[in-house]
Automatic annotation (TrEMBL):
Its EC number is 1.1.1.18. The gene is iolG. This is Inositol 2-dehydrogenase. One of its GO terms (biological process) is inositol catabolic process. GO terms for molecular function: inositol 2-dehydrogenase (NAD+) activity; nucleotide binding.
Length: 343
């Protein structure tokens, strides 16, 4: 079978990383087209990939006859229009989170895909592909911990861009723990409460950092998440599961531990998300490429989080932003999945 021809829309930090990944580490695929709202950036990235072209209009890149599938790494506000174009032209698409930037448009995407009767959209929640999360999920499904009860999570960044505000801590950072919770527990999130500790002196003025998120599921499982995105230290993501018959801890970065003078010991902390989850991204994209290549036979061009997962995450984060503003616990409002045939 010939290589899958992919268009990568948006080649900033994330998109350029995906171009390099698809071009050098993923089998059965080639980057045929790149697009970015900064043409010079697109030209620079394309120049490093043999046979790659720049198409300046993202919608033209989607419909290009030499493009079989699409990777969306564009800004979130552009996603709904681009996703609907992919659906209209039946182009499988890997969409980096968020699916869209509001609940209504995310639900519309879910409904439009369901009407087609074919699954074309995969959402880039890469933690599901991380070996440690996958191992934890396997142990849970095998009943190793009995009934899972509590999930403790930590999500820390050394720094974030100047444009990062308090709501983005919910929508861009917490969103991953939202998906992890749904992935591990196989149920939706019923409520969320965002607590506001004293802000760190190192946080930008007006930004509520850190935040504590408390989430509950319909069956009473408890999830708490410490979100601290301006630590100045490194990128730390940890998860502890507590069940009736035991517990498990992942994300400890237990690599080389060094001891030295004067009586110090320690190791290294990942500098950013690419270092921590690089292998997860590789696994995610290899499995996506394989799914797209066999999709014509199955009607399913995905192997991972779906448009519904993107919608569910958007609904929880919308409730989280409301809680951040009001200071109160907020119930998550979602339509019933069964009400959308094929979702």
């Amino acid at each position: 079978m010939s290589d899958l021809r992919v268009a990568v829309l948006g080649v900033g930090v994330m998109g350029a990383d995906h171009v390099a990944r698809l071009s050098t580490r993923i089998a059965g695929v080639k980057v045929a087209v790149v697009n970015d709202f900064i043409d010079a950036r697109a030209e620079e990235v394309a120049a490093g990939v043999p046979g790659c072209r720049v198409v300046s209009d993202p919608l033209e890149a989607i419909v290009d006859p030499e493009v079989d599938a699409v990777v969306l790494a564009t800004p979130g506000p552009t996603h709904d229009k681009q996703l609907l174009a992919c659906l209209e032209h039946r182009k499988p698409v890997m969409c980096e989170k968020p699916l869209t930037t509001d609940v209504d448009s995310a639900l519309e995407v879910v409904r439009r895909e369901a009407e087609l009767g074919v699954r074309l959209i995969q959402v880039g929640f890469m933690r599901r592909f991380d070996p440690e999360y996958a191992q934890l999920k396997g142990l849970l499904d095998a009943g190793e911990f009995g009934r899972p009860l509590v999930l403790h999570c930590v999500h820390r960044n050394a720094a974030v861009p100047p444009s990062f505000d308090s709501t983005m801590i919910v929508k861009d950072s917490l969103v991953h723990e939202v998906d992890v919770t749904r992935f591990l527990f196989d149920e939706e999130i019923a409520s969320i409460h965002i607590l506001r500790p004293a802000p760190s002196p190192g946080a930008p003025e007006g930004v509520q950092d850190p935040q504590i998120a408390i989430m509950t599921t319909p069956t009473g499982k408890h999830v708490d998440v410490e979100l601290f995105v301006t630590t100045g230290v490194g990128y730390e993501v940890r998860t502890e599961l507590v069940g009736e018959h035991g517990s498990a801890f992942i994300g400890l970065d237990v690599g080389l531990i060094r001891k030295g003078v004067p009586g110090t010991w320690g190791g290294a902390i990942a500098p950013d998300f690419r270092a921590r989850f690089g292998l997860a991204y590789d696994i995610e994209f290899q499995r996506w490429v394989a799914a797209v290549r066999r999709g014509a036979d199955s009607g399913n061009y995905t192997d991972g989080p779906t448009a519904w997962d993107g919608y569910a995450a958007a609904a929880v984060c919308a409730a989280g932003v409301e809680s951040l503003t009001s200071g109160r616990r907020v119930d998550v409002t979602m339509v019933e999945r069964a009400s959308i045939k094929g979702a």
